[in-house]
From TrEMBL:
Gene: hpt
Reaction catalysis annotation: GMP + diphosphate = guanine + 5-phospho-alpha-D-ribose 1-diphosphate; IMP + diphosphate = hypoxanthine + 5-phospho-alpha-D-ribose 1-diphosphate
Broad class of where this protein is predominantly found: cytoplasm
Organism listed in the record: Pseudorhizobium banfieldiae
Keywords of this entry: Cytoplasm, Glycosyltransferase, Magnesium, Metal-binding, Nucleotide-binding, Purine salvage, Transferase
Any one Pfam family match given in the protein's UniProt record, by short name: Pribosyltran
Swiss-Prot/TrEMBL cofactor(s): Mg(2+)
Name of protein: Hypoxanthine phosphoribosyltransferase
Pathway named in the protein's UniProt entry: Purine metabolism; IMP biosynthesis via salvage pathway; IMP from hypoxanthine: step 1/1
Length: 184
């Protein structure tokens, strides 16, 4: 079992399994609306998935433009939860086919916010690709168009995703299961 920063990480999705899903997702995306395609990766968690997926898109013959947006959730409590733009995209999305990429679809708030905002700005079509779908945690009526894996309700790390800024560099997705060598 991999040990990083003194923690045991149990792999859930291997680098190979993810690469294979990325190839399948790219082939699916190529069948959808891709005229003048603009890919928007939602930072920070999606940066590795996006980097791999856009290269898989190249392999199936697509030539997207790539943009980044940093979104942040606020109000972690139960009542007023919202999403705000920390750093916006530079491009005009009017009449563009947009593919939003995120790491995890959980409550759906982040991606619903992003999708609605892009339609308000005049995007022609907005579709969503996520590596992981934690559908049991959904709070909004929103589904992704392309999903890597249906994810159990674990807090996962790696392949871009962090816990307290750690573990983004792992080439696989895993779960922190405990301390190595009996350390606490
Ligand atoms: P939601 O769909 O608005 O609830 O937000 C999902 C976002 O929460 C994802 O883009 C991640 O940034 C973060 N997130 C949710 N679950 C996890 C997890 O298990 N590990 C790391 N980040 C997570
Ligand atoms: Mg995120």
């Amino acid at each position: 079992m991999p040990v990083v920063r003194g923690k045991i990480i149990e792999p859930l999705y291997s680098a190979e399994a993810i690469a294979e899903r990325n190839r399948s997702i790219a082939a699916e995306i190529a069948k959808g609306p891709t005229k003048d395609l603009l890919v928007i990766a939602i930072l920070k968690g999606s940066f590795i998935f996006a980097a791999d997926l856009i290269r898989a898109l190249h392999d199936v013959g697509l030539a997207p433009e790539v943009e980044f947006i940093t979104l942040s959730s606020y109000g972690a409590g139960t009542v007023s939860q919202g999403v705000r733009i920390v750093k916006d995209i530079d491009s005009d999305v009017k009449d563009r086919d947009v593919l939003l990429i995120d790491d995890i679809l959980e409550s759906g708030r982040t991606l619903l916010f992003a999708k609605q905002m892009l339609y308000e700005r005049g995007a022609r079509n907005v579709s969503i690709a996520v590596l992981l779908d934690k559908s049991v945690k959904r709070k909004e009526e929103l589904e992704a168009d392309y999903v890597g894996f249906e994810c159990p309700d674990y807090f996962v790390v790696g392949y871009g995703m962090d816990v307290a800024y750690a573990f983004r560099e792992l080439p696989f997705v895993g779960v922190v299961t405990g301390d190595a060598l009996g350390e606490s």
